[in-house]
């Protein structure tokens, strides 16, 4: 079979590397003259990150459409080239030039009513988002969606729906926005949307879910994105962003070894060739190093994130706090909180970014003893949590409130907020966040005089920190008390279990009933977060109780 036929067949199979190779060979033979074949070459080259080949092929396709008088196809070709240059490469001038060319083509010979005019509403919506005008963006995207549905253009309708969701989220209507994102994903998963549009939707939807800390949706759509990438041999764009999302979700669920591996893969994937999302990958890797106590590696990764254009805060300020440089951490977080970010209107453009800064600010300011400033940050964080409404965002705000109340000695109020946060983190299966909250719960319980339950909470937190590898948190927690809140009689029972005694033998030795022994053992297992007698024996020897 000739290279052109092989290339066309590979495109149908979404085998992009093979498609690009065959179509380039066909072009070398002079067989690539048809505009549609040039579009195929541009698509396969773009999806395998052969950017120069893709741009030249799309430009030739545009000229071929224009030469045969197909204004609508030429305008559509110019639109996609402009959008790819803007979104994938950050080439604002060239991307804007191609979008202007698409506009001119439509003005010179297109009907007043056509889907192609709807496509040009999409960059208008993106510009409105960038300048902090979610209402204007929503209007443009809604018109694009209407045009897509009128002309039965799945790409246009789906991208418009995606844009509406993004605009609603940034305008403070997270629930309605997420519903639009789900609708866009349904169209993508039904196979009605082109590969480039599908990739844009997948990545934008997952990013939006993470922006409002909707962890369940992020998990679901990241798994779908992974499957979509894996089903297309040779696909390069979108895969790196997928690895970043997977790294963060693995971190949330406490699998930090996998998170580091995914983040390192993302850094490599997005750096060769360079991608706009590379800074995000390095920031995620830096954060993993920070929570694991790998300070030098974290410092290097934060530096690389900065080189690639990613803001290192609040992670860098928290690293300084862990290094004992509290005043440096305070100065860094204050600068980050006071610095206006482009396109932010009342903190709703990027709610998670602002929330993370505020939560870190509360932690750092409390460490510096400035409860007043921490309380002010808490109030703003509460407002974001109420607006966004997701469980993880509410848990973040509740923990911050509890930490401030704890620092002020209001232990009952602290316990209420911290218990709410703990319940939310536990329901989201975010063990590290739950463990950090348990530490604060333990301190609140101690303040209220409940040493027994406090010891149980701190012991449970310690075991999570040990499991995930959270060295700095273990260090802050200090050495475990040998008895870990056990009563004298419970200590007696543990020692006898470690000697290999049965419940009946323990009852005889201590002159108590079998039922009482069983109750003491249940309390021991609960307080020490142990699963069975063997674990209790190991604990007894490890802590020199025998």
UniProtKB/TrEMBL annotation:
UniProt entry keywords in alphabetical sequence: DNA-binding
Domain of life: Bacteria
PROSITE patterns noted in UniProt: HTH_LUXR_1, HTH_LUXR_2
SUPFAM superfamilies associated with the record: C-terminal effector domain of the bipartite response regulators, TPR-like
InterPro entries: Sig_transdc_resp-reg_C-effctor, TPR-like_helical_dom_sf, Tscrpt_reg_LuxR_C, WalR-like, WH-like_DNA-bd_sf
Domain HTH luxR-type: residue ranges: 479-544
DNA-binding as UniProt keyword: yes
PANTHER family documented for this protein: TWO-COMPONENT RESPONSE REGULATOR
Name used for this protein in its record: LuxR C-terminal-related transcriptional regulator
Native source organism of the sequence: Blastococcus carthaginiensis
């Amino acid at each position: 079979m000739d290279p052109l036929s092989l290339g066309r067949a590979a495109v149908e199979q979404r085998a992009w590397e093979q498609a690009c190779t065959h179509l380039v060979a066909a072009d070398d033979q002079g067989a690539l003259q048809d505009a549609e074949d040039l579009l195929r070459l541009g698509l396969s080259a773009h999806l395998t990150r052969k950017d120069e080949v893709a741009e030249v092929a799309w430009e030739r396709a545009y000229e071929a459409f224009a030469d045969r008088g197909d204004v609508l196809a030429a305008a559509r070709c110019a639109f996609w080239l402009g959008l790819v240059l803007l979104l994938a490469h950050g080439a604002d001038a060239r991307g804007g030039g191609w979008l202007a060319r698409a506009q001119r083509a439509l003005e010179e010979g297109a009907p007043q009513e056509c889907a192609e005019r709807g496509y040009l509403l999409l960059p208008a919506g993106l510009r409105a988002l960038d300048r902090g005008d979610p209402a204007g963006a929503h209007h443009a995207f809604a018109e694009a969606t209407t045009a897509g549905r009128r002309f039965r253009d799945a790409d246009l309708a789906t991208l418009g729906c995606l844009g509406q969701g993004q605009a609603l989220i940034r305008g403070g209507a997270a629930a309605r926005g997420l519903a639009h994102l789900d609708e866009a994903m349904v169209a993508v998963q039904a196979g009605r949307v082109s590969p480039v549009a599908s990739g844009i939707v997948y990545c934008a939807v997952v990013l939006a879910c993470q922006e409002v800390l909707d962890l369940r949706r992020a998990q679901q759509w990241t798994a779908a994105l992974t499957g979509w990438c894996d089903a297309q041999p040779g696909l390069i764009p979108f895969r790196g962003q997928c690895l970043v999302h997977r790294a963060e979700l693995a971190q949330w669920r406490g699998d930090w070894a996998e998170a580091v591996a995914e983040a390192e893969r993302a850094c490599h994937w997005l750096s060769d060739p360079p991608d706009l999302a590379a800074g995000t990958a390095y920031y995620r890797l830096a954060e993993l190093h920070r929570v694991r106590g790998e300070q030098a590696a974290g410092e290097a990764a934060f530096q690389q994130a900065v080189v690639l254009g990613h803001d290192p805060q609040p992670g860098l300020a928290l690293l300084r706090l862990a290094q004992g440089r509290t005043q440096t951490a305070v100065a860094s977080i204050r600068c980050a909180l006071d610095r206006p970010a482009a396109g932010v209107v009342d903190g709703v453009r990027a709610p998670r970014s602002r929330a993370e800064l505020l939560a870190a600010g509360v932690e750092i300011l409390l460490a510096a003893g400035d409860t007043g400033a921490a309380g002010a940050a808490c109030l703003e964080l509460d407002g974001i949590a109420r607006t966004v409404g997701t469980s993880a965002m509410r848990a973040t705000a509740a923990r911050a409130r509890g930490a401030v109340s704890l620092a002020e000695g209001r232990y009952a109020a602290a316990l209420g907020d911290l218990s709410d946060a703990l319940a939310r983190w536990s329901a989201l299966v975010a063990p590290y966040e739950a463990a950090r909250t348990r530490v604060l719960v333990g301190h609140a319980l101690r303040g209220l005089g409940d040493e027994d339950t406090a010891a149980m909470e701190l012991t449970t937190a310690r075991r999570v920190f040990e499991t995930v590898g959270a060295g700095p948190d273990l260090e802050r927690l200090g050495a475990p008390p040998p008895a870990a809140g056990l009563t004298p009689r419970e200590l007696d029972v543990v020692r006898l279990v470690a000697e290999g005694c049965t419940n009946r033998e323990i009852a005889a030795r201590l002159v108590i009933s079998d039922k009482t022994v069983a109750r003491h053992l249940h309390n021991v297992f609960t307080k020490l977060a142990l699963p069975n007698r063997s674990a209790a024996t190991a604990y007894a020897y490890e802590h020199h109780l025998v």
